[in-house]
Write a structure and sequence with these properties.
heterodimer; B: alpha/beta; 18 helices
Chain lengths: 356, 489
């Protein structure tokens, strides 16, 4: 081989910024090949996606609607990933958050919205935090790999919500659809004008700023950074690693649960089967593409929201929605592959030198 | 840094050749060159009279050099036989399971290894796993076997079995290199010993007539020591006192056995001895990083056993661990971050919810200046600093608050002469200011140059602590080999 990688002493700043952009471009390029094979003109399809997602008020508002849960879940994930705690359970935590909020709405719907909404939020976040507590405590106490436990609990959470929607909480007047009765109006979030954009957007942006401050400027943020780099150094510094694992996992779960809360209070106004089309998984890619930076998560989530909206819209052209998911996957693929350029330098070598 | 300098080593068929030296003496580097991991900058390797150059570990293996690393390199999920043939299946695309199973079975029987070729490696003891590694070398017809500290992971019984196997290998005409720092092993098994010190061969001789004392002398280097003039120091009151102090190691073994020790203010007590005899466990327990099994720890007369890392730190116990880049410092974080690594929770660095990064950065710059750390920007990652600068950074952090007690594990290991002198100066300064220093060092010469008293640790036991002006080489050598310590303990 005429080339090899050599480790960089210091990670490359330009590569850190360039790799995400190039990954998106390469993903679109690879997606084009698929579209060509499918017999569609990629430029037309991408043009239509872009158009539907960003060119009209309605498009932008729908893009933002999709971006809200992505932002919240990606923020949740970024906090855990900072500590190298692989919380893959955002999807389940979203469902548990929706479950907690819905329970309050269904049984305490008579309360005024000033009490009801905070109560729903608290119940949802608590449910998400407790759901994430399980992989957290297992990791802290028994060294059980949190990647698997958090992932597998997703299926449990989804099935639990399904059980409620098909069973005890099913709307008797819902013509047998798997959904609960509609929440009373005082259990719904205010929206912006005629759009479906709800208060969750503001919450997500404020949270991004808060997390950025937390990581950068607080004592707990420092602990999270040190524990993420080295457990040995963290114990040497007198930090309580086990407690922080549980705590970070629970906060992460609570933040992801907020995405579920905002979906039921802002969009669906009820708990239903298939509440999240995989926001918790897409959010992993969002967080990664934003390099775990809370502020960068905002625009990246908007981009991914647009990708979803675009994916839905090109269905009318006979292109399956999966194209949006394929592009998401390709972005992650190129992003992870491109990581080597951040830590390594590519060196071309002539055959002759190599042999000596 | 030069890890190896102009090394001449002659290895004969049929001999077990011990390579002895302290940690960092260059043993492992040398063997990695032989095993094809690194390439020498100059010099030649002759194999059966032919000059050879290895392009890779695979290449070295092909040419008959088998390396058995301290950390075994086996695939736990594969069987014994599969692990043995791993890496030598290149000639065929098909996995001829029955064929290699028979071949491995034959080898096992021939050498009486008591292994089942069908068994998964994950289910084997460490001693058995090591035998699988040896089998692998035999399967590849290696006639040079290199073992890097093979007994470190073995029980005494397993070690004896290993030695019997090594003798068998040698009797068949193979050459065996045993890298070790255990004197007893050298005496028990080696035919010839080569001693490395600071990257150079200091001596190489047949084992006939060589005993513990001779080996110690070879390791230490000089017959007589130049005694430095120690200014008469007024040692103050006892800062640290241990009574019947015991600590368990990672595997549950008793790593520190009922030791007694006292360090006074303004005094440096150095623990000498071969690495791995309980020194690290002792320091970790004193710093609060490892539970105390039994016994008492008094800090200026107050019981301090069982207190947390942070609690001890607040009482002025500071610690320099052996591993700089992953424990003592966080290499990927900035120099400023590392300056507050252990003090980040103190009020002076926090205002409300915020860390005072401006203040922290200024303090980092001050320390960089005061301790002459070569660092252009305190925001850049610490791992970009050289070894000496990393050590100074760690010392700067631990010494800046004028600690009561400093625990220092190998503070000068791997540093060049200039950096060593500089670290000595810093330690001396702290001592003059009344800090009690308990340090673990390997180099006896260095200990005599800088410490006030010296004690030897062997197998978790401590010798009496003597002023460095009163110790004899003979005595230290005996203690390092464990002679006379059982009686005391």
């Amino acid at each position: 081989m005429p080339m090899h990688f050599s480790k960089r002493l210091e990670t490359s700043k330009s590569a850190r910024i360039l790799v995400p952009f190039i990954s998106v471009l390469l993903a679109l390029l690879a997606g084009s090949i698929l579209l060509l094979l499918y017999g569609k003109d990629p430029l037309v399809v991408f043009g239509e996606m872009l158009n539907s997602a960003f060119a009209s008020t309605y498009g932008i508002s729908e893009t933002l609607v999709k971006a809200i849960p992505l932002m919240l879940a990606a923020l949740a994930i970024s906090l855990a990933f900072r500590m190298k705690l692989w919380n893959i359970g955002a999807e389940g935590q979203i469902y548990m958050g929706a479950f907690g909020a819905s329970g309050v709405a269904l049984f305490f719907g008579h309360l005024s919205s000033w009490i009801l909404l905070p109560l729903m939020t608290a119940a949802g976040m608590l449910a998400g935090a407790l759901w994430a507590f399980i992989p957290g405590i297992l990791r802290a106490r028994l060294q059980v790999n949190e990647t698997f436990t958090s992932l597998l609990l997703n299926y449990v959470a989804i099935l639990w919500v399904d059980y409620l929607c098909y069973g005890p909480w099913k709307d008797p007047k819902g013509s047998n659809f798997p959904l609960t009765p509609r929440f009373p109006d005082n259990a719904t979030l205010p929206t912006m004008g005629d759009t479906r954009i709800h208060l969750g957007l503001l919450v997500a942006i404020l949270l991004a700023v808060a997390l950025w401050f937390l990581i950068r400027s607080t004592r707990w943020g420092f602990e999270i950074r040190v524990i993420g780099e080295s457990w040995d150094a963290a114990s040497y510094a007198g930090m309580n690693i086990g407690r922080n694992i549980v705590l970070v996992m629970m906060v992460s779960g609570a933040l992801a649960a907020l995405a579920g809360v905002s979906e039921v209070t802002g969009i669906t106004h009820r708990l239903q089967h298939g509440l999240s089309p995989g926001y918790g998984y897409s959010a992993i890619i969002v967080a990664w593409l934003a390099r775990l930076h809370p502020l960068a998560i905002i625009p990246v989530a908007v981009l991914f929201g647009g990708l979803l909206v675009g994916g839905y819209s090109v269905q009318t052209e006979g292109v399956p929605f999966s194209i949006a998911l394929i592009i998401q996957g390709l972005i992650l693929f190129f992003l992870l592959g491109g990581e080597i350029f951040v830590t390594h330098r590519l060196i071309w070598k002539r055959q002759k030198e190599l042999r000596s | 840094m030069q890890a190896n300098r102009k090394i001449d080593l002659h290895l004969l068929p049929g001999e077990i050749h011990a390579l002895l030296g302290e940690n960092g003496a260059g043993k492992t580097t040398l063997m990695n060159i032989l095993a094809g991991m690194y390439r020498p900058d100059s010099g030649e390797i002759l194999l059966r009279g032919q000059a050879v150059a290895f392009s890779s570990p695979q290449d070295a293996l092909d040419q008959g050099i088998g390396m058995i690393y301290q950390h075994l390199m086996l695939v736990p999920g594969l069987t014994v036989a599969e692990n043995v043939v791993l890496g030598s299946l290149r000639e065929s695309w098909w996995l001829r399971r029955s064929r290699f199973h028979t071949a491995v079975q034959e080898l096992i029987e021939k050498y009486g290894f008591h292994l089942n070729p069908e068994q998964k490696v994950a289910n084997l003891s460490l001693g058995e796993q090591q035998r699988v590694e040896i089998l692998r070398a035999l399967y590849r017809h290696s006639d040079v076997l290199i073992l890097d500290e093979p007994t470190a992971v073995l029980t005494p019984g397993e070690a004896r079995e290993l030695f019997a196997i090594l003798r068998l290998m040698a009797d068949e005409g193979r050459a065996v290199i045993l890298i070790t720092h255990k004197l007893n092993e050298v005496i028990e098994i080696a035919d010839r010993v080569t001693v490395l010190r600071r990257g150079q061969v200091v001596d190489s001789r047949l084992m006939a007539g060589v005993d513990n004392k001779t080996l110690t002398r070879m390791m230490i280097g000089q017959e007589t020591w130049e005694q430095e003039d120690h200014p008469a120091r007024q040692a103050g009151s006892a800062v640290l006192k241990l009574d019947d102090f015991s600590v368990r190691g990672d595997r549950g073994e008793m790593a520190v056995k009922r030791i007694n020790l006292e360090v006074k203010s303004g005094e440096m007590l150095a623990i000498a001895g071969v690495a791995g005899n309980g020194q690290n466990e002792l320091l970790q327990a004193l710093a609060g990083l490892r539970p105390i099994f039994e016994g008492q720890m008094l800090l200026s007369g107050q019981p301090a056993g069982g207190r947390s890392v942070r609690d001890l730190l607040q009482s002025g116990v500071r610690f320099i661990p052996e591993d700089r880049i992953h424990t003592g410092l966080v290499g990927s974080l900035g120099v400023s971050d590392n300056v507050i690594l252990r003090d980040y929770f103190q009020d002076e660095y926090i205002q409300g919810m915020r860390m005072k990064w401006g203040r922290i950065r200024r303090q980092a710059l001050e320390l960089v200046e005061q301790f002459q750390i070569q660092c252009s920007d305190p925001d850049r990652p610490a791992r970009l600093l050289s070894g000496g600068n990393l050590q100074r950074l760690m010392l700067a952090r631990e010494l800046q608050h004028h600690p009561r007690l400093l625990l220092a594990a190998y503070p000068t290991r791997g540093l060049d002469v200039g950096a060593v002198d500089n670290i000595h100066e810093l330690l001396n300064l702290a001592r003059r200011e009344g800090t009690a220093i308990l340090t673990v060092m390997e180099d006896l010469e260095e200990i005599l140059q800088i410490a006030d008293r010296v004690t030897v640790m062997y197998n978790g036991m401590l010798s009496p602590a003597l002023p460095v002006t009163d110790v004899s080489l003979e005595q230290v050598g005996q203690w390092m080999a464990g002679i006379g310590l059982d009686r005391i303990a």
